[in-house]
Write a structure and sequence with these properties.
Radius of gyration: 18 Å
Pfam family, one: Methyltransf_11
Structural class: alpha/beta
GO molecular function, one term: methyltransferase activity
Number of strands: 7
Keywords: Methyltransferase, Transferase
Largest sheet: 7 strands, mixed
Shape: globular
Strand order of the largest sheet: 3-2-1-4-5-7-6
CATH superfamily of one domain: Vaccinia Virus protein VP39
InterPro entries: Methyltransf_11, SAM-dependent_MTases_sf
Protein name: SAM-dependent methyltransferase
Length: 251
């Protein structure tokens, strides 16, 4: 899957939506000053940066399997404890964190339940585990897939990934043993000043959408771009994106 890209490209592709989402998600997770906090699947550090403003940098840890992303986080946030690794094998002590978060990453874990169990393991009893995933139909990349399906109705989109439907995360949290599980929907609105501001980052090859676009020949890419331009015009236009979130308490 296309995540072996420069941090700057990922930021232009998803950061434009993840950045306004981060404060809503951190508030939902009830992150507070003085807490030890872990950002799982941190990418280039969009949520990590916000966590540093809520608690102290030396109390924040971040982990992601992408070396370019972790290099970017280490460079920009030198006091944060950064690690290259996967959610299913977190390199931290049992019960070390007060809050463990996964923003827009549960659905990309090779084993989401194992990833959640690891998040629980490294969180203290009474601490919080929280995650969020874009909604299948109204998430940040849903407009792109709507254009794809106009041309290629059978194209495999991101509608059936873990957590992408209402109630998915809540059920998963309960299954792995979290208590007091609470779901929510988080909404962000991003205005694109011009069509190219929205379209160009899809050409960077990031994630499933970038993989799909890269798989097309020149004629296919041109046809898809034409459909999108017809739908959205030259801009400006606003994308309203919903993410499903859940939080739970560690027993």
């Amino acid at each position: 899957m296309g995540f072996d890209v420069a941090a700057e490209k990922y930021a232009r592709f998803m950061g434009r939506y993840a950045e306004p989402l981060a404060p809503h998600f951190a508030e939902f997770a009830r992150v507070r000053m003085g807490q030890r906090v872990l950002d799982v699947g941190c990418g280039p550090g969009t949520l990590t940066r916000h966590l540093v403003t809520l608690t102290e940098a030396h109390l924040v840890a971040a982990i992601d399997p992408s070396p370019p992303f972790m290099e970017a986080v280490a460079r920009r946030l030198p006091r944060v404890d950064v690690h290259t690794g996967v959610a299913e094998a977190l390199p931290f002590k049992d019960g070390w964190f007060d809050v463990t978060l996964a923003q827009l990453v549960i659905h990309f874990m090779s084993d989401p339940e194992a990833g959640l169990q690891e998040m629980i393991r490294v969180t203290r009893p009474g601490g919080t585990v929280a995650a969020c995933v874009w909604d299948a139909d109204t998430g940040a990349v849903a407009p792109f897939w709507a254009c794809v399906h106009e041309i290629d109705p059978e194209a495999q989109d991101e509608a059936f990934v873990a957590g992408a439907r209402m109630g998915d995360l809540e059920r998963m949290f309960k299954k792995v043993g979290l208590r007091k599980v609470e779901p929510s929907g988080l909404v962000v609105r991003v205005t694109h000043p011009a069509f190219e501001d929205w379209w160009d980052p899809y050409t960077f090859g990031v994630g499933p959408a970038g993989d799909y676009l890269s798989s097309l020949d020149e004629a296919g890419r041109s046809a898809l771009e034409a459909v999108a331009r017809r739908r959205f015009g030259d801009g400006p236009f606003t994308v309203t994106a919903t993410a499903w979130a859940a939080r739970g308490t560690v027993a």
